[in-house]
Amino acid sequence: MKLWKQTLITLVALCSLAVQAAPRELDRVAVIVNKGVILQSDIDTALKTVKANAKSSGQSLPGDDVLREQVTEKLITDTIQQQEAKRIGVRIDDSQLNQAIADIAQKNHQSLDQLKASIAAEGLNYQDFREQVRDEMAASEARNALVRRRINILPAEVDNLATLLAQETNATVQYKIGHIQLRVDDGDDKAAVEAKAKDLVAQLNKGADFNQLAYTYSKGPKAMQGGDWGWMRKEEMPTIFADQIKMQNKGTIIGPFRSGVGFHILKIEDVKGLETVAVTEVNARHILIKPTVILSDEGAKKELNDFIEQIKSGKATFGELAHQYSQDPGSAAQDGELGYQTPDLYVPEFKHQVETLPVGQISEPFKTVHGWHIVEVLDRREVDRTDSALKNKAYRILFSRKFNEEASAWIQELRASAYVEMVKEDENDG
User: Fold this and answer.
1) What is the distance between the alpha carbons of residues 179 and 229, in angstroms, rounded to a whole number?
2) How far apart are CA 20 and CA 348, in angstroms?
């Protein structure tokens, strides 16, 4: 089956051609749908398309009467959705339409000329095909916009599904675990032991050798192995370990946490079978100058270049100038600092600068929609976003489920409230 025909049959082919079709001899109005009509030629064309596609794919079809009824009903619901698109002002311009048709050709491994030839070979008019695609795109946008309003996803739903997804993933994930145990015996000062545990965690977060600290301080069963428990699935771990591990990434330090015997520190030395998601966050600072009717673009750019000279000569610091002159109030109060953010949060020009500038280097003045900037990257860091990725996946699953349910209900409601009249042949004649 040709892909463009699949596209038509699933997305387009059954939509009304009433607007595009030129009057034809012996054609007649078959159905009135609100203030629009479906012509008999629309139904006949759709029937031919369905039968041709079924033949090429080897699918069986019901009898002609049942098939005609199904095709007519599909044309009715498509027409109603297209009317909704017009009602809320959805417009698909030629550039959007051209891109959609180019995508159809590409997915079918055809050039645009080859796609046109395929359409012509089936006896269809290319301009009609374009308008069918345009109508379906408009209907799809209207459906997306109107159905989205009906969807409500609670944070608890996302959390619960994310937990289930994590459990499914964890069933096959293996962790290489390091362990330090500080025992609390009768008569020991618990606060002092806890303070020591926190101190060890601080050392580890600064890069101290885990094995060395385990040899020195741990009273756990693997102390003489540098705290190394080897590779384990969660179901194979001691419960106090498994309860603390929730999809963390390689290198994560966990703890200290308390058990009946004392305080524990874990390190995830390595992970197998876990699809982790890491992103780069950038801590940058900037100075923003906004052009006005008095201050031109050139004037704003010159002011920023003057700031650069003052910073390089030591007459002022970046933070001092940002605090005094930057017209971004939020960051100016922080000496221009924006904090750790993913570059995607910024407008394209600013994103490019924070992604490409070496740490510690001040950019040349550059312009965005907000005005003129200079920016300095203070630091970059890799952040594990596996947990966020699971929640995003859970949200997408829930949205897809609810969208399909609500879209079906929305179409049924539209159909029930629409004026639909089947026109008998003799009514056209009269």
Assistant:
1) 7
2) 41
Query: CA 2, CA 330: separation in Å to the nearest integer?
Result: 56
Residue 18 corresponds to which amino acid? A
Domain assignments of the chain as residue spans, ordered by start:
3-150+410-429, 173-272, 280-383
Using alpha carbons, list the distances in angstroms from residue 248 to 162, 173, 179, 276, 278.
Answer: 14, 11, 15, 9, 11
Distance between terminal CA atoms of the chain?
A: 42
Alpha helices in 92-243 (DSSP H): 94-107, 112-121, 126-148, 155-170, 190-205, 210-217, 239-242
Name the CATH architecture for the domain at 3-150+410-429: Orthogonal Bundle (1.10)
CA atoms within 13 A on the CB side of 22: 4
pLDDT digits (tens, 9 = 90+) for 256-292: 999 988 999 999 999 887 666 677 889 999 999 999 9
Tell whether the model's pLDDT for residue 245 goes beyond 80: yes
pLDDT band at 24 (very low <50, low <70, confident <90, very high): very low
Of 95, 266, 110, which is closest to residue 179 (Cα–Cα)? Answer: 266
The verdict on domain 173-272 having CATH code 1.10.1660.10 is no
Residue 424: what pLDDT?
A: 82
pLDDT for 25 equals 47
Strands of 174-183's sheet in order across: 228-232, 174-183, 262-272, 253-259
pLDDT value of position 277: 67
Residue that the structure tokens 């673009």 belong to: 297
Is residue 124 very low, low, confident or very high in pLDDT (cuts 50, 70, 90)?
confident
CB atoms within 10 A of CB 211: 16
Over 80: is that where the pLDDT of 359 sits? yes
- Domains 173-272 and 280-383 alike in fold: yes
Report the CATH fold assignment for 280-383: Chitinase A; domain 3 (3.10.50)
> Tens of pLDDT along 96-122?
899 999 998 888 888 999 988 888 887
Instruction: Please say whether the beta carbons of 422 and 75 come within 8 A.
Output: no
For 206, 271, 284, 296, 383, the CA distances from 250, given in Å and listed in that order, are 16, 6, 27, 51, 11
Task: Please list, in sequence order, all residues whose beta carbon lies within 8 angstroms of the beta carbon of residue 214, skipping any fewer than 6 positions away.
Answer: 178, 179, 180, 220, 222, 223, 226, 227, 228
**Dist. CA 302–CA 305, nearest whole Å:** 5
What digits encode the pLDDT tens for the residues 44-84?
A: 878 877 887 777 677 888 888 888 899 899 899 989 999 99
